[in-house]
Amino acid sequence: AAIKKNDKAALRRILKTQLEPLRREVDKLWKIHRDLWLSTYRPFGLEVLEQRYGGLRTRLETLSDRLKNHLAGKPDSFPEFRTTLHKIFPEEDIYKMIHYSHASTPTIER
Question: Average of pLDDT values for 98-105?
Fold first, then answer.
């Protein structure tokens, strides 16, 4: 909503009070999760976990950079916020079709 309204004060507040703390917390969580994984599963499968955290960390950094550029007056239209969303499966309930437990499961190597 703040981007659609071009509310720069709200965007600065989001950047400072939500996005920056979130990035720090994700880094803490990644390190805790990594230590837990290594103590439980050994290194097998750790690369998948690290790719997921790496992707999340990169997306948060990209969002932070784009918001900073927007606040500095550099052109970035945020087309993803101005696009009309369409249902991919209009006749189906997507949450019944795709569940996380069907997409990914950790393996234990003994």
Answer: 59
**CB-hemisphere CA count at 13 Å for 77?**
4
Dist. CA 55–CA 106, nearest whole Å: 18
Structure tokens of 91? 């006749």
Q: Give the predicted TM-score (pTM) of the model.
A: 0.70
C-alpha–C-alpha distance, residues 106 and 104, integer Å: 7
Tokens of 56: 């999340």
For 3, the token pair is: 């981007």
**How does 56-70 read in b/e, with b if 16+ C-beta sit within 10 Å?**
eeeebeeeeeebeeb
- What does DSSP assign to residue 16? I
